[in-house]
Each structure stands twice: as C-alpha cells, then as structure tokens.
C-alpha cells in the first residue's frame, strides 16, 4: 500500500506540475499574442493617422493653389485695363494680395514637404515655385515693361500643369499607402 501511495502521489505531482507548466506556457503565449495584437493595432492606427494627415495637407495645398489661380485671373483682368493711375493702384493692391496668398501656399507646400513622401514633397515645392513667374511678370508690367502682360498670361499653362503633376503624385502616394 505504501508503494501505491507513493506512485499515486508521484502521478499527482507530475500531473499537477504539467498543469502548472501548461498554464504558464498558455499564459505566456496569450500575453505575447495580446502584445503583438496591440502593436499591430497601434501601427495600423499610426499609419491611418499619417494617411489622413497627408491627405489633409494635399487638399490644403490644392485649395490654396486654386485660390492663387483665382487671384491670377483677377490680376490678368486688371492687366487688360488701359494704363492709368487707377490700373496701377489696382495692380499694386492685387500684388499685395498675391504676396499674402504666396505666404499661404508656401506654408501649405512646407506642410506637404514635412508630411512626405519625397515625391509628393518635390511636386509641392515645384508648385510653390510655379507661382513666381506671375509675380515677376506683374512687377515687370508695373515697372513699364510692355511684355509683362504676355509673360503673365504665358505663366498659366505651366502653373496648371505643375498642379496636375502634384495631384498625380499625391494620388499615387495616397493610393499606395
């Protein structure tokens, strides 16, 4: 009977030890699985926040570009007026607005540059630079250069083409995220 008690006790110890070990292994596995799931969820949330942040930056730049385009149409209309003090005053006021709008488009382009990716950032900076010919042309017109209006009007096509390249780069980047 003594051997039987020791045998039963040994089986109970082994069974209990196995149960404790199995519980420990299961607990570690569950903890690891929960950690992996939490990390995966956090990564997905960060990726989605980045995606939405980029999208907002892209949209802000596009919106600001269209505001600049509308202002350029106003300037173009003023350039069509006959030379007079009123025309000059109107153009001076429009150039001041152009500078203010440029500050906004520069800020939008810098946000896109910050958000990335590099291909979209480069397209945003090109779009920002595409506003310069308008400024140079209207300044030339105000300084008496008779070719200023033609240079201003010739700047539209490259400006809108640069916007289209930005939109394509932004769409491509946004869809690949």
List the main descriptive attributes of the protein structure presented here:
rod-shaped, mainly alpha, 6 helices, 177 residues
What's the helix and strand layout?
Blueprint: H1 2-79, H2 85-115, H3 118-129, H4 132-142, H5 148-154, H6 156-176
Helix pairs in contact: 1-2, 1-6, 2-3, 2-4, 3-6, 4-5
- Into which percentage range does the β-strand content fall? under 5%
Mean pLDDT: 90
Instruction: Give the class from helix and strand content and strand pairing.
Output: mainly alpha
What Rg do the Cα atoms give? 33 Å
Topology order in helix (H) and strand (E) letters? HHHHHH
Unreliable spans: none
Largest pleated sheet: none
* Total beta-strand segments: 0
Gap from first CA to last CA: 72 Å
What's the tally of helices? 6
User: What is the overall shape?
Assistant: rod-shaped
Portion of residues within helices: over 70%
């Amino acid at each position: 009977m003594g051997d039987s008690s020791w045998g039963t006790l040994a089986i109970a110890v082994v069974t209990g030890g196995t149960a404790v070990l199995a519980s420990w292994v299961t607990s570690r596995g569950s903890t690891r699985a929960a950690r992996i799931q939490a990390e995966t969820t956090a990564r997905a949330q960060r990726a989605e926040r980045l995606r939405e942040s980029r999208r907002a930056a892209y949209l802000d730049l596009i919106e600001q570009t269209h505001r600049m385009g509308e202002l350029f149409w106003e300037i173009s209309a003023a350039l069509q007026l006959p030379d007079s003090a009123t025309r000059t005053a109107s153009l001076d006021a429009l150039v001041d607005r152009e500078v203010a709008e440029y500050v906004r488009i520069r800020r939008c382009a810098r946000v896109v540059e910050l958000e990335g990716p590099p291909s979209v950032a480069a397209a945003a900076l090109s779009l920002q630079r595409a506003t310069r010919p308008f400024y140079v042309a209207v300044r030339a017109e105000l300084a008496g250069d008779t070719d200023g209006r033609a240079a201003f009007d010739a700047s539209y096509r490259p400006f809108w083409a640069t916007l289209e390249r930005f939109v394509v780069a932004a769409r491509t980047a946004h869809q690949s995220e």
